[in-house]
Amino acid sequence: MKGQEWYQATEVAEEYDEKRFSRGGRLIDRREKEAVLDAVGPVEDQRVLEIACGTGRFTVMLAERGADITGLDISGPMLQEGREKAQRAGVEDTIEFMRGDAGRLPFPDDHFDTVFAMRFFHLADTPTKFLTEMARVSKDTVFFDTFNRFSTRSLYNWLLPMGSRLYGDSEVRRLVDEAGLDLVNDEHDFLVPYGFYRKVPDWIAGPVRSVDTALGATPAGKPLSSVSYWQTTV
């Protein structure tokens, strides 16, 4: 797993949200949360599992909407940040944070209504194993995102200390088939890679995002998009 030691560092966990989702990064946070909510639908009284929950951005959001949610991550410091976030939001009683391996989920088959993972598959050395496990423990929806090979992300990837696994459209569709899942919907976004938005202030990020979104709606949008969201069912 790429970056396993890096993500488990306490200083990384403490600074994670601030470095990625402040300034122009707020636009990324907003879009990712929108994508999750669109995919999972109403979650009140639903049993949900988040893989690689990190600092609990989505875990807490869904708990606030009534989900009975479990957040699993390999990083103890990230989970601690999530617990503190849940306490501040007053939803700590409806979230279970667990440290564990996404390749060997400690749950029976069909245990959750929905299973999802964000910011995870770009780190996966063996994506088929992880997606198959997600499908095994879900009885309905499996949702995840990927970074795309034929996009501006491929250029930005050279600057990253540990790189990312990038996916082509056909590769993801094959993974979905191999996991026994049916693809319901796929969306593609962010012609400008995440790294740009995180480095610029709001007054620059906003207009760039407007242009990015407009270009993304054209026929060139899908092949050039750096991020894809995949909604599937078991």
From TrEMBL:
InterPro entries: Methyltransf_25 (IPR041698), SAM-dependent_MTases_sf (IPR029063). Keywords: Methyltransferase, Transferase. The keyword 4Fe-4S does not apply. One of its GO terms (molecular function) is methyltransferase activity. One of its GO terms (biological process) is methylation. The keyword Methyltransferase applies. Residues 48-139 form the Methyltransferase domain. It holds the Pfam family Methyltransf_25. Its EC number is 2.1.1.-. PANTHER family: METHYLTRANSFERASE (PTHR43591), RHODANESE DOMAIN-CONTAINING PROTEIN (PTHR43591:SF110). This is Probable S-adenosylmethionine-dependent methyltransferase. It comes from Halobacterium hubeiense.
